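chain below, 291 aa
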Amino acid sequence: MTTTTTSAAAKGCGGDGCNAPHPWPLHHVRHRGGIRRLCTSCVLKCHNGSFCSSCFSVLDAGPSRPTPTPRPAVVRCSKCPSVCHLTCLQNPNLGSQYLCPCCSNPDGFSYFLVSTSADAGGVPIEGSVAPCEEKRKTIDLNSAKVLFAAARLAVASMSRAASAARVEAERKVKEAMVARKRAREMLERALSISKKERERIKELIGSGDKTMVASLEVIGPKKKKKKAPMPEGPSVMSITAAHKRVQAHGIAANRKPKSTSVSSVQGSVAVDMKNSAVRTMNQHLGLILLL
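prediction:
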């Protein structure tokens, strides 16, 4: 079996300790919580318990069938989780002492052996006269079985990764919807409370209830504010000056001696009128400063 690839070589394999000089082809596999690009041999090494290490038939890959066939008897490697069909062993009586090919040849073992040639006669590419010619990789029947098993395992791994990503995305979407709903409810509640508080303050200011206004100032949070500058304007200054003149005039009138009973009565009436005028002026001044 011969396949053709372009001269642009793929990047290296992401397997642990892989020393393949030309890792072709590379499979996308989910391994240790991440997506890696592994060569065919590394895919089988990462899933050493999912295929027969002798005939390379996949044991567990893809969705389960509605009527699963009975699984043939297998034996496990005495050093790793690799398995092998009991019928594939040369001597089934020695199944307890079985060693997989990877454990039997720990130094530089590879499941996928590909011979690179420039033509059907097997001339190496390095000795080819035309270096720009497309590379040809020759795969025998055993290597084809290995490649097919690695492809099935990679597809099953990525299918599981896609399912897990879909479940995680749906969970995050639900959490985002719940958080959005809670944020909207809290915002509406805050706006409603703020609106009611503004309306209450307007009603208290309109009614002129100083006691309730003072209670709101005590209950509300105290914030440090900068001292507002004194209002300047002819109206406020004139009212303050008139207030002082009226007070001075009232004090001077109270200190005058009483000449006769009629004059004293008239003086007391005038003082009362002036005092009432002073009180009225004080009330108006207080309302102006409050507003």
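Helices lie at 40-46, 101-104, 141-207, 210-219, 234-254, 261-290. The CA atoms of residues 39 and 45 lie 10 Å apart.
thats it, cya
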